[in-house]
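Chain and backbone:
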Amino acid sequence: MAQQSAAPVDTAGTQPVCVKDLQQSAAARLAPAVWDFIAGGSGTESTLDANRAALDSVSLVPRVLAGIKKTDTGAQLLGASAALPLAVAPMAYQRLLHPEGELAAAEGALAAQVPFVVSTISSHSLEEIATVGATLWFQLYWLHDRGRVVELIRRAEQVGCQALMVTVDVPIMGRRLRDLRNEFALPSWIRSANLEPDGSSAAHSRRPGESAVAAHTKIAFDSTFGWSDLEWIREQTRLPLVIKGILDPRDAEQAVRLGADAVVVSNHGGRQLDGALPSITALPWVVEAVGGQCQVLMDSGVRSGTDILRALALGADGVLVGRPVLWGLSTAGAPGVAQVLSLLRTELEEALLLAGCADLAAARTLRSVVSGMRP
């Protein structure tokens, strides 16, 4: 696929100046049930709301008179260079948002020079997405069939994925009330491209008071996933191993002992255990627990360059960004994704300068105040 430029996206006659502008555009464009599928959380959505509130509760203590002319947002993520301390989070069924789905999203990530994480349940196959030329990581769910797990790992290796990200917080899909009320099911033209034919038909079968997507994952995923299984995965590949879904520092320590190259502090964007701790709140504990033995990334609620700076100041090496990418994708395909990432880069550059930080290393020395406590 030819690379497209990050052309400006016109939302309701005005140029977007932050990612929230694209959120409003996406909400207006998408069918209500599809919007609920990407925007909703589990249960009462208390964790979904808490993620944003917790990020807003982190106040940064800027340095002054730093004499900086230009800031550098470049990062090293799992040994590879990226223009931002950011990767596009793994997200399912992106053709729901745009006909080119993951192909367009990966193209936007390529334009922004950041890694794109391919979901196990993407609507384009690993092989198709690899043709875009973006830096790819592959996200793996633990399946009932170990043979399929090995097959997916080998396919990721063969197409040149640079990391394997194992999601560990989905023994079952969280109870997402919006999807249950909508009796959400995938349209016939959306497929689980990496998993066919194993149970994928269940995702298309609408049932009263049920989510067909949840029914499909129940068939495909194995809820008994344990540490010994993760150790087995580590033995199957030499790719850098990223463990996504860590909140407790004890789990972070165990992940390091099993050979993790990075952990992602994440509550799955508020879509799994409702009432779980906000990711930004757990982040400093995890950073302390791993003691520099692996990289630490964070996701859930990141919406601005200031949020990225908050995560860096609390010890993260970078962040994953999810829903904002989908907003850009639904609004304008690859250029929309590129614009979301460009806005985040502009905001981070400005936030670094205003905080007196020339680069990401300096950002990690910033002090922060949470809920009025002294720095």
